[in-house]
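Backbone description:
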Amino acid sequence: MRLSTTDPVRSQRPTGAKDLLGKVALVAGGTHDQGAACAELLAARGATTVISYAHGEHAAARTLATLDGYGTRAEAIRSDAIQSGDVTSLFEGVTARHGRLDIVVHAVGAVVHKPLAEHTDADFDLLIDHNTRSAFNTLRAATRHLADNGRYVVITGALAGAGPYVSAMSAAAKAAVEHLVSATARELSGRDITVNAVAPGPVSDSIYPATDIPFPSSARSRLGQPEDVASVVSWLTSEAAAWISGQVIRVDGGTA
C-alpha cells in the first residue's frame, strides 16, 4: 500500500535551510519514534521524503501529515525491511517515481533485554531478522540505487562494549551491522557514497518508555529523545559530513 502527498499543504512553521531541495530521501521504519524524527528533519530541509513501514497504517498517516506540513512531497509505503523482495520493490519504486535516490536512513531494529541463557530460538531469529537482515537488505539495495555522492545511515543501538545493559545477542546482532557498514563504506568510496551508523544510548520512545528501560540515566541526567538521534543522522546526510564514512557514532549523552 502506498500513501502519498502530491499537493503539499503550505506551512508557516520555520524549516531552516532547504539544502536538500531536489534530493530524494528514503527512511525505512520512518513512521514512528527515531525514524519519524529523522524523516521530519529531512523533509524540513526540502527533501522529497519517503517513509516505509511493515505495519501500522495509522502511524504512517500521522507521520505523513507531519511531513506534508513542510511543503515537500512525501510518501508512506508499506514494505517489510526483513523481506528482501519487499525491499527490492521499495527501492525500485522510489527511483522509478522520483528519478533518483540520494539518502537512505535505516531505522528498523529490535532489542531483547534478558541474559543469554534465557534467550530462545525465536529471540535469536527476531534479533537477527530485525537488526542484521533488515540492514543488509536496505544497504544492499542502496548500493544498487543510491546516486553518486549519496548517503546511507543506519541507526543501530548501544555498542557491544556498553556493559551489562544490552544482552549479548542484541549486541552481537548490532555489531554485525557495524562491521557491514565499515566494509561497505570502503566498497562505495569510489562513488563518494558515505555509509555510517549511529549508535544511540538509552532513548525513551513509544516502544521503550523511560519507565521500562533497564539503563542508567546518562551523564546528562536524562534519557535521550528521538530528536537527539535524528539530529546526528540528519547531519550525516549533509555536505558538512561528506568526509565521514565507515564510522559508528555514539549518541548517548555520555552514558557509556
Q: What stands out?
A: The domain at 2-251 is CATH 3.40.50.720 (Rossmann fold). Residues 129 and 213 are 22 Å apart (CA to CA). The mean pLDDT is 87.
